[in-house]
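Dear colleagues,

As part of the handover before I leave the project, I'm documenting each prediction I ran so the next person doesn't have to rerun anything. This entry is a single chain, and its sequence is reproduced below.
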Amino acid sequence: MSEEIRRLLGQRLAVGFDGYVIPEEYRALVREYKIGNTVLFRRNVRDFGQLKALCADLRELISGETGLEPFILIDEECGSVSRLAHIAAQTPCAMAIGATDDPENAYRIGRLIGEELRAVGVNFNNAPDLDCFTNPDNTVIGNRSFSGDPQKAALFGVRYAQGLMDAGVIACGKHFPGHGDTAQDSHLDLPVVEKDAETVRKTELVPFQAAIDAGIDAIMSSHVVFPAFEPERVPSTVSRRVMTGLLRDEMGFGGLIVSDGMEMNAVMNLFGIEEATRRALEAGVDVAEICHSAEQAASTMRLLLAAYEDGRLDHAQARESFERIAAKKATLPPPTGDADFFGNAAQRELARGIMDAAVKVLHAPGGEALPAVGRDALFIGLPARAATLANDDVPLDAAARLAVIFGARYGRVDGEETAKVVVAVFARHPGRGALAERVSRLAASGAKVIAVGMNTPTCLTGLPESVWQVGAWQYDDLAVGAVARRLGGKAL
């Protein structure tokens, strides 16, 4: 197969790798198959200097082999789905931003993240999340959604995207047609949304249509089945009815369509990575993400080249996608390379202020103010646990951290300690039931209990009426500090 065809099809993949430098097998992959794009994860990020150098090396390698700048993709949403939080500004999650009721906060965080990404050389962000959180059993989206209200999710998602784009970074709304009403994680299983088309149009599609109308650069597909649009019940990523018929023809999207990770079980278990990728491209996806393996990317390219030769990949469609990709790459501004735009004091203070505004009392018994929390309080709770494989798991025990901040006691969930004031930290966790039982016993004994939800408010359901409920939205140091300040502590 000619080098021209390899360049044509190589632009259709974004391939990831392990490590802080480009491994030799990845260089060989790019040289052989003219891979045009890459996708980075936390496993590729050590510090600012390393990441900046890595992005520069990727640009030199890929542009030298393909003649086009690469898309350097990353999932830097905000909150828990972050590849940079350990070295840059920790940011409030989408649901926390939504809780401030100020859509300009979404713009501010989008702009902040865009400035950080452009500083290191990343030019394509797989964000914002445009899903509507309408299913309380949904763990894969949860607090990654701005809201369960389609209009609010649309308003905040569009402003976030505009912040990214104003910083010179491609914004990619996800996960089309929607992942907010699923009870399964598509990393593991195949979710199905059994809604009629009109309901989907009035809910899931509202934020995506708003983003399209506002000129968003890219849309990411979901590996979710929507039988209302795809009667053959295949995932949206590999459905031409969804990717082309719905997204392009009906909704009028003319930008880039990018797939979610093709190694995810929802598509891999049905077709294998290679065939799933071919089906995705044939359905209308412009760029498919193969996030982990150069070997799988190579076998996928061999299949794509064969499919192009025997007509299983439409030549005109392949050329159209290539031209769409090339046109967008021609508009990419160069990276700033400026460390002053990466986790600076003003960015951290901005994020902290928005997080402080997000932490709210969701329920107060009899409308009473929160009890005073001091050194005589008891803190109990659950340690951090990733709610979805999209998150990078960072160990943290918020209750223990808060106890240190207040100079107070830290108790076990299954312990018998008592106190006049108790702060209980909840999250989505297998131990939630045991913690809820302990809270009920403490409240029945006369203790004033403050339940802090460090995830969606659904983690606070079923608690006694006498318990105060505080929404803190995410489980990380940024939220811990905001909770401490809300309870009267002096956390930095």
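Residues 3-341 form a domain with the TIM Barrel fold (CATH 3.20.20.300). Residues 48-66 form the longest helix (19 residues).

All the best with the project,
I.
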